[in-house]
């Protein structure tokens, strides 16, 4: 996967209120799949912590949501898209914490 020079990466980590609850996990994942239809999303990846263990790894989250956008403007549009707003309304009761890392290219 090649990220364009002006590409924008939006990586979201979710900590579930009930991390052992499979139904809550599945509901969040299904919500993210529905969210993936937003037209400005170039590509996405839904993940869970890998089975790795080193001091620098934080694997305390439940689900990660990696999004690729062509540029910052597309990501800004995603933030106010009705599909995104609906996802937050329908799924925010599932998590206790969300951390976001946004990055742009260095070139």
UniProtKB/TrEMBL annotation:
Superkingdom, according to UniProt? Bacteria
Signal peptide residues on this chain, from the entry's feature table: none
- Transmembrane segments annotated in the record for this chain: none
Q: Which residues form the Stress-response A/B barrel domain?
A: 8-103
Could you identify this protein by its name?
A: Dabb family protein
Q: Which organism is it from?
A: Ginsengibacter hankyongi
């Amino acid at each position: 996967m090649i990220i364009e020079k002006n590409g924008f990466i939006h990586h979201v980590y979710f900590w579930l209120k009930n991390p052992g609850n499979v139904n809550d996990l599945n509901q969040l994942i299904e919500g993210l799949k529905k969210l993936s239809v937003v037209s400005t999303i170039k590509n996405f990846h839904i993940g869970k912590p890998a089975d790795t263990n080193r001091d620098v790894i934080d694997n305390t989250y439940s689900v990660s949501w990696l999004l690729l956008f062509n540029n910052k403007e597309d990501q800004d549009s995603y933030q106010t898209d009705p599909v995104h707003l609906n996802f937050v309304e329908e799924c925010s009761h599932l998590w206790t914490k969300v951390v976001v890392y946004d990055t742009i290219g260095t070139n």
